[in-house]
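lol forgot to send this yesterday, sorry. struct tokens for the thing we talked abt
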């Protein structure tokens, strides 16, 4: 740049416009909340824990079924 106003160079203006577009996209992008890690202590009843266990799909990602019998948090009422 030689002291002229910003944008007098078409290449510079293009870079500024691209930068603004990237920033705008970042500001308007949805925020993804990471999945919560549940423990049996997070539930009042076994039925609540069972719903989360079943909704999580295969693999028991929250480790709610310690003995792998398909029943989550068996010690809860």
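and heres what i got for the seq, position by position
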């Amino acid at each position: 740049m030689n002291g002229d106003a910003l944008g007098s160079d078409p290449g510079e203006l293009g870079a500024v416009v691209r930068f603004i577009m990237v920033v705008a996209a970042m500001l308007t992008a949805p925020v993804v909340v990471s999945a919560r890690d549940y423990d049996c202590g997070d539930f009042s009843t076994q039925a609540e824990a069972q719903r989360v266990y079943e909704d999580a799909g295969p693999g028991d990602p929250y480790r709610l079924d310690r003995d792998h019998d398909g029943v989550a948090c068996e010690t809860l009422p």
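The CA atoms of residues 43 and 77 lie 10 Å apart. anyway ping me if u want another try
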